[in-house]
UniProtKB/TrEMBL annotation:
DNA-binding recorded as keyword: yes
Domain annotation Type I restriction modification DNA specificity: ranges: 8-135
Domain of life: Bacteria
UniProt-listed InterPro entries: Restrct_endonuc_typeI_TRD (IPR000055), Restrct_endonuc_typeI_TRD_sf (IPR044946), Type-I_RS_S_subunit (IPR052021)
Gene3D superfamilies hit by this protein: DNA methylase specificity domains
Protein name in the entry: Type I restriction-modification system subunit S
């Protein structure tokens, strides 16, 4: 279902990468268990409301007496080591999946396992809600001051050509540069967990923000140019999108601060760097989430199925900015602590995710009794 055919509503539209939007009509009834048909293997999503699954996904239509939420955990455990025989089309073959021999616990044990794992997911969901509220606070102030132009003192400022007096249209190129990432070689990617994690377009949430799911690890022995090591809270932007509707193209994210993890600046991800001494990165994050900027980037995207943009296109966007820095600096003073709290919650969620994923196979194989 392309974005232009969706009608505004509260029914989640679910793809291989999770909820990608909303529609006014449901195709499948809750409870729902959805996984990716191709592209993303091992990610499983549980829905407690009616939903619309896209054709990039597979969804359960008959739980055969299994507790639905337990089924989501069970399927995630089955898929973690899944390998498709169709190398040319990596993904989940439904027919193969149906034939996999598994051992399932009795309903009472299912309930106990579900309760144990759900406790972790509920804490992560609570953190996600807090993160969303914190970010929305920053975005609301950005829209109030820089989109609706209701900044402090606006009542006494006249508009000239659509901008307040003392403001001007400035290309981002005058403030920042966007640098390309490094072409890390596939031969150095690692199936084992390492301290080095490659940033990819899959690390960006729809609407902006970091998304940490299944990391792509890079060998500890692989060549690593020092200029391509990212620091916590570096501002990055995605320049490639695999979705038909360019769901994440051009959106920004802040690099997460995680213990014992080094994020690497991979190709098709841009790093935003200052051209001078003025670098209001939290303000710029909101600019790169602005719908006007999005139209500028997506409207000129190149490619067919895979969409691309470029530093040149991103930097050619003109933003209306005050000539004096004070208003933007005031915004930074408000927004910086909010994003710092978000990063703390991101780190907390990764610890919870790691603990849950460590428990998952042990609970499923009976190594840990409940």
């Amino acid at each position: 279902m392309p974005g232009e055919t969706r009608i505004e509503g509260d029914v989640p539209v679910v793809s291989s990468s999770g909820i990608t939007g909303f529609h006014n009509e449901a195709k499948a009834q809750a409870p729902g268990v959805v996984t990716g048909r191709y592209g993303t293997i091992g990610e499983v999503y549980y829905l407690d409301q009616d939903y619309w699954p896209l054709n990039t996904s597979l969804y359960v239509i008959d739980f055969k007496g299994t507790r639905p939420r337990f089924a989501a955990y069970f399927l995630r455990n089955v898929l973690k080591d899944y390998q498709s025989d169709k190398a040319a089309v990596p993904g989940v073959d439904r027919n193969v999946l149906h034939e996999i021999k598994v051992r399932a616990p009795d309903p009472t044990t299912q309930e106990r396992i579900e309760a144990t794992l759900t406790a972790y997911d509920d804490m992560m969901e609570n953190n996600r809600r807090r993160m969303a509220l914190l970010e929305e606070s920053a975005r609301l102030l950005y829209r109030e001051w820089f989109v609706h132009l209701r900044f402090p003192g606006h009542e006494h400022t006249c508009l000239i050509n659509g901008l307040p007096q003392g403001w001007e249209r400035v290309e981002l190129n005058n403030i920042i540069n966007v640098t390309h990432g490094y072409a890390f070689q596939g031969a150095d990617f690692s199936e084992e967990t390492t301290s080095r994690v490659l940033t990819t377009p899959g690390n960006f949430r729809i609407g902006g923000g970091i998304k940490l799911g299944k990391p792509k690890f890079y060998s500890e022995a692989g060549p690593l140019p020092p200029d391509y090591i990212l620091a916590p809270m570096d501002l990055i932007v995605t320049m490639t999108d695999l979705s038909k509707d360019s769901d994440t193209l051009g959106y920004p994210a802040f690099v997460a601060k995680l213990p014992d993890v080094t994020f690497l600046h991979n190709q098709r991800v841009g790093k935003v760097v200052p051209r001078g001494d003025f670098f209001p990165k939290h303000f710029l994050y909101c600019v790169l989430c602005d719908e006007r900027y999005r139209h500028h980037v997506v409207g000129a995207a190149t490619g067919g199925v895979i969409k691309h943009t470029s530093p040149k296109r991103i930097l050619s966007y003109e933003a209306g900015l005050p000539r004096k820095r004070q208003l933007i600096e005031d915004f930074e003073s408000f927004a910086a602590p909010l994003f710092a709290q978000i990063n703390i919650l991101v780190e907390s969620n990764e610890k919870l995710r790691a603990a849950r994923d460590m428990l998952l196979p042990r609970l499923m194989n009976g190594e840990i009794e409940v």
